[in-house]
Amino acid sequence: MTVDEQRIITIAYELREANAEGPVVEIMDANWPFKFYYGSGKLLPAFEEKLYGLEEGEAFKFILSPAEAYGEVRQSEIIDLPMDLFEQSPETPLAEGKYVTVTDDQGGQHNGMILSWNNTAVKVDFNHAMAGKALHFSGVILNVRSATVDELIRKSYIKEDGVRGN
């Protein structure tokens, strides 16, 4: 069976930043594979496209450009926020590289990384953590199966215990 729409795909892979020698970002091995419903719209479209048509047992290796992955870094997503939005306490000090969740005026929550701060403002980067980075995937298709009726309805992989996956 090949990777196609409405199938549950199980893969093992190694994700590195930039190229095959880049820093390791994530490893999903045969003991902890990644299982997903192909065509759910929840994954990067280019990621799914690169796997399309591969057969069970077939190896893959490809690079997604920043545009195919999480986009380029947008300067408009790096914002100076008033210091008073951040409650300073000894238990939660400001720290460069720390991720924070900020709620906007409409109640939407946004995750960002603290870049710097001064007495009046905190500079926060709301770009995706992988924005501006090429992603190198290498791995193997472990299993391909048809989705069950419930998975087709939910457009999601359902674990054996009934919990929805990707």
Short description:
With 166 residues, this protein is mainly beta. Helix content is 8%, strand content 37%. It folds into 2 domains: 7-70 and 131-154, Chitinase A, domain 3; 75-125, Thrombin, subunit H.
Kindly describe this structure.
The protein has 166 residues and is mainly β. The chain folds into two domains: 7-70 and 131-154, Chitinase A, domain 3 (Roll); 75-125, Thrombin, subunit H, CATH 2.40.10. It has helices spanning 45-51, 149-154; strands at 7-17, 24-28, 34-37, 59-64, 78-82, 99-103, 109-117, 121-125, 135-146. The strands form two sheets. Strands 1, 2, 3, 4 and 9 form a five-stranded antiparallel sheet that branches. A four-stranded antiparallel sheet has the order 5-8-7-6, with no helix packed on it. Strand 7 (109-117) and strand 8 form a beta hairpin. The longest helix has 7 residues, at 45-51.
